[in-house]
Write a structure and sequence with these properties.
This protein is an all-beta fold. Helices cover 1% and strands 41% of the residues.
């Protein structure tokens, strides 16, 4: 099928047998599907589209559920798509992605792709399945700046593209760069992950102020960093002990939770967080990140295979990267909808990874404010 093709709704509603959560399975074709990585929104702010990746054509392509009708639309016909580079613009006008050495955006109105930057001989992903191998990108919430990492000359580089002018600037070169995120409250500030044993770094958008925010202690497994909106705090997982956060303006650190949160992200107001769990899998957990003593609430059990045996042991990257088998579409990677009323996640419970959406309303009154 070609770009712009419309597919019937595949939505199926059902109830989680253990929690009673109301779930909606959005995709059902027997192929791999997944939404964007957990710290990247799956929806535009107006929630006209829920954007995801489908392999139903024989290769990864970007699709969207048109939420007013439930129909599915194929947005791309793009060879070489880096499926975790996907980033829907908050204003709903574009979907950004990379393919081979190109940085592209696609108009959601015309479905015409536009090449913003060709990186030539550079590689936009590293080898493997985690961190810089995923090729995630970052878009500022005002839709103005797009951050892309690439490899050239044995160095990792970070480029910032001005989506209005088309101009770009390489602001950083170093050993490893991945999982960039613009601060939701200041588009002049970015987080990026450095090496697996020294991850937590900040940099200003103009390339100044490159600094380590947190120095990892021996044996600590620091991972899955996310911004907390409206607080200038960066949260990170101390696997499997819980989540901590550091205020990037004051340096003050605090504890957010003490359970085995794996991938955790805040809602748009920064008042709630949702996390998947592993080793053991205790389901999706909803919790108040401002009360570390309050109990988390189990939303549902995704029953995803969550492959990645290395997560069951001590920190494996003390002396650098190792080869792991951790296909990302087997992980739930929950995230909130912009209106805070839903959580979207991926599960391969059926034998193929599919997209699911959960209604939050019945659970909100059970979270201490």
């Amino acid at each position: 099928m070609a770009r712009g093709s419309i597919y019937p709704s595949e939505a199926v509603r059902f109830e989680d047998a253990k929690t009673g959560a109301q779930l909606r399975q959005i995709s059902s074709h027997p192929s791999i599907h997944h939404h964007p990585f957990f710290m990247i929104p799956a929806y535009d702010d107006a929630m006209k589209r829920l954007v995801f990746v489908s392999h139903r054509t024989g290769r990864p392509e970007i699709f969207a559920e048109l939420r007013d009708s439930g129909l599915l639309q194929q947005l791309t016909e793009q060879e070489g798509l880096a499926e975790y580079s996907l980033y829907p613009s908050p204003n709903g006008s574009y979907v950004y992605y990379t393919a081979f050495s190109g940085a592209w955006r696609l108009s959601t109105d015309t479905l015409e792709p536009e090449l913003l930057l060709d990186f030539g001989d550079a590689s936009l992903r590293s080898e493997g399945m985690v961190a810089d191998a995923m090729g995630t990108t970052a878009l500022s919430h005002d839709d103005r700046y797009w951050a892309i990492r690439f490899n050239t000359g044995g160095k990792a580089c970070l480029a910032i593209i001005d989506t209005q002018t088309g101009k770009h600037e390489v602001i950083l070169q170093r050993d490893t760069i991945s999982h960039m995120m613009f601060c939701p409250d200041d588009n002049n500030l970015l987080f990026y992950a450095g090496p697996l044993n020294d991850r937590v770094w900040l940099i200003n958008r103009d390339g100044s102020g490159n600094r380590r925010l947190y120095k990892r202690k021996p044996g600590e497994w620091i991972t899955h960093e996310v911004w907390l909106p409206k607080r200038f705090e960066l949260a990170f997982v101390d696997w499997p002990k819980g989540i901590r956060a550091i205020n990037v303006q004051t340096g003050k650190e605090r504890l957010l939770s003490s359970f085995n949160a794996w991938h955790a992200v805040a809602n748009p107001e920064g008042k709630l967080m949702v996390a998947d769990t592993n080793f053991p899998d205790n389901g999706l957990q909803l919790f108040n990140p401002h009360d570390s003593k309050s109990e988390a609430v189990t939303l549902c059990y995704p029953e995803a295979s969550s492959l990645g045996e290395h997560w069951a042991g001590p920190f494996p990257y003390e002396h650098g990267p190792i080869k792991v088998y951790a296909p990302q579409h087997t992980h739930p990677h929950p995230s909130f909808s912009p209106d805070g009323k839903h959580v979207v996640f991926t599960s391969d419970r059926s034998g193929f990874a599919q997209i699911y959406e959960l209604e939050l309303a019945p659970f909100l009154e059970r979270i201490p404010s």
